[in-house]
Structure formats: C-alpha cells, structure tokens
Amino acid sequence: MQIYSISLSGVLSLQLHALNNEGSEGNQTLTRRYYIVRDGDSEPELVNGISGDMLKHIQAGHLHRIALADALSLSEGASRFDPDRVGYDIDRANSPFFDGGEKELGAKIAKILQRCAVSDLEGFMITEKKGQTLKRDSTVEFGTIVGIPDRVKTQSYFHAKYGAENPVPYNVQVSSGAYATVAHLEAFRIGYNPHQFNYSIDATERKKRLDALLKSVLYAYLQSNGAKRNTCLPHPNGFFGILSATTGRCPAPMVSPLDRDFRDRIYNLSETLNRIHNSEIVHLFPFENVAEFANCIERLMELAEPWEESE
Predict the structure, then answer these.
(1) What is the radius of gyration, based on Cα positions, of the chain?
(2) pLDDT at 16 over 60
(3) What's this model's pTM, rounded to 2 decimal places?
(4) Is the Cβ–Cβ distance between 235 and 15 less than 8 Å?
(5) How far apart are CA 104 and CA 267, in angstroms?
(6) Dist CA 181 CA 146 (whole Å)
(7) N- to C-terminal Cα separation, the chain
C-alpha cells in the first residue's frame, strides 16, 4: 500500500541515564530540563528530557551506516557523515558538483536528490558561492523526549576523578523515568522535487530510501546515543504506544503521550478521519514493548510503498 505519512506516539522508559546534559556549574553537570503545561496544572512543571536535536542526530547516524551498508547513493560529504552533507561537495572548489548544465533551481535540486539519499531524507540548506540558496526540509521530524511529570526523577551522584595527586570531586546528574516521544515521517516527499512537481528518483529507489528511513528510526530507539554512555549506559526497560500510517492525503494522527489517554484519542481520531474520507486511510500499529515496536516497523517495511504525488 502507498503510504503518505507515518507518526509515532509512545512512552519510552529509560533508567539511570545522562544522555542530554546542558553543561556544568562549578563541579556539577546539569541535565537538560523543560517546562511543560498540562490541562489542570496550576503552574508549569519542570521535567528533564532529551532534545529532539539529539534524537535527530542519533537517527541520522544510524541512517548513514544503513545507507553505506545498503549501497544507497551518497554524496561524498554524506558518506563522510559531514554535517553539511551535499554542501561539502558543492563547496569543494577543485571538483564542481554542478557541471554547468543546471541553471534552474529545480534542476539543481533534482541532481542533489539523485546523488544523495541522506540529503534527501534529512534535509539541507546550502548557499552557493555567488549563487542560489538550496534548501530542503527533512522528511523525518522528532519532538523532544520529555519526562512525564510524577514519573521522572533526577538525582545527583558524587564522583571523584582519581590521579596520582589531588583527586577531583564532581557531581553527575542521572535521570530515570517514563518519557513521552513523538515523531513524524513524510513518506510522500521522499525523492519529490517541489520545484519541478515530480520525483527525481524512480519508485524502486524511493522504496529503498523509505525502508532505510524506517530502520534508522527503529535503531534510534534501540540505541539512544548521547552523553556519558561509557558509565551511564541507559537501561531501556519499556516502550509502548502507536504507529499510525495514512494511505491518502492526510497526516498520520499523533497525540502526545503526556496525556494518559493518548492511545484512546488516536483511535477516536483515526475513526473520525476515516469517516471524513469515507475510506479506511488511517492504519494503526499498536505496540506494548520494544520487540512489538520492531515488529510494527518490519510490518510497515513489508507493506509500505512511498505515496506518489501527482501534479
């Protein structure tokens, strides 16, 4: 079935982690914290969390390795995992990326999409020297992984860095609890060139890129890279939620797991969307643990073809 978009709403349990620190104050590391407001709260609540920037970087790293293993087309910058991706190639004076035949913006974007799967999926923004600004939004989006109030706790632990003389004392903040996570994948935009209103790569290549993208999202939750994993490797002991996918021009429904009844709301929203479209265009894949989450990703890889936009 052709998939237009995919959304994830889930509760992830992480114990004893220090994945996202904001810096230090004196001899104490400080974990990242966020204010959130929920219905019925008399004032904002402060909870720890992991930034969406970090999760996107983790996912991009997994996608890079998958792309190399699956022999997807990559620019030199993407193959090096350079943060500029195809911008690395374009900025190299001794090896022009464009051969002079690409004058229009659409033709330049088409060549980038053809040459680099990671730039296609993860997005880019490049300003050519004395030229145009080339831009593409990411096809995958992550929200902050935010602690659910009353279900997260941060503690400070004393450590000492021992040497031959003068051991250095310091404190590390370590967090445990249940975290709300959301993500969205726009399958219909894989390989799509909005300046030429067509796809710059064929259906077979688009399918390979969708599968690579799905695997990278799975791996991002299987291995949450970040700070202090050498001694604070997280204990991931729970993951439940819903993957939703749409087979028509409709965003896949997503509800924040900060609401305890988020799964009921997704089911109700899906029923409403199906009635509005007079067709079963919303498909739900619930999971109760990380193994079932992996099964849902596998099922999507078996069933899903990227939606093909028409003019």
Answers:
(1) 22
(2) yes
(3) 0.92
(4) yes
(5) 45
(6) 7
(7) 20
- In which element (H, E) is residue 13 found? strand 5-17
DSSP state of 163: -
**Would you say residue 249 has pLDDT above 60?**
yes
> Would residue 7 be called left, alpha or beta, if left means φ above 0 and alpha means ψ between -120 and 50 degrees?
beta
Q: CA 298 to CA 301: how far, in whole Å? A: 5
| Cβ atoms 119, 155 nearer than 8 A | no
Half-sphere exposure of 247 (CA within 13 A, CB side): 14
309 — pLDDT class (breaks 50, 70, 90): confident
Helices (H) and strands (E) in the chain, counts: 8, 16
User: If you ran DSSP here, which 8-state letter would residue 18 be given?
Assistant: -
Short-list 284, 273, 217, CA closest to 248: 273
Question: How many angstroms separate the CA atoms of 28 and 158, rounded?
Answer: 9
| Residue ranges per structural domain of the chain | 2-306
CA atoms in the 13 A half-sphere facing the CB of 114: 13
Rounded distance, CA 183 to CA 55, Å?
10
274-285: pLDDT as tens digits: 999 999 999 999
Picking from 254, 249, 255, 305, the residue whose alpha carbon sits closest to that of residue 277 is: 249
| Cα–Cα distance, 152 to 178 (Å, whole number) | 6
Phi-psi region of 85 (alpha: psi -120 to 50; beta: other; left: phi over 0): left
Which of 202-211, 226-235, 242-251 shows the lowest mean pLDDT across its residues?
Answer: 226-235
Residue ranges of alpha helices (H) inside the chain are 52-69, 76-79, 86-90, 105-115, 117-122, 203-222, 262-277, 290-303
Residue the block writes with tokens 């996107």 = 56
Per the CB < 8 A criterion, the answer to whether 77 and 90 are in contact is no
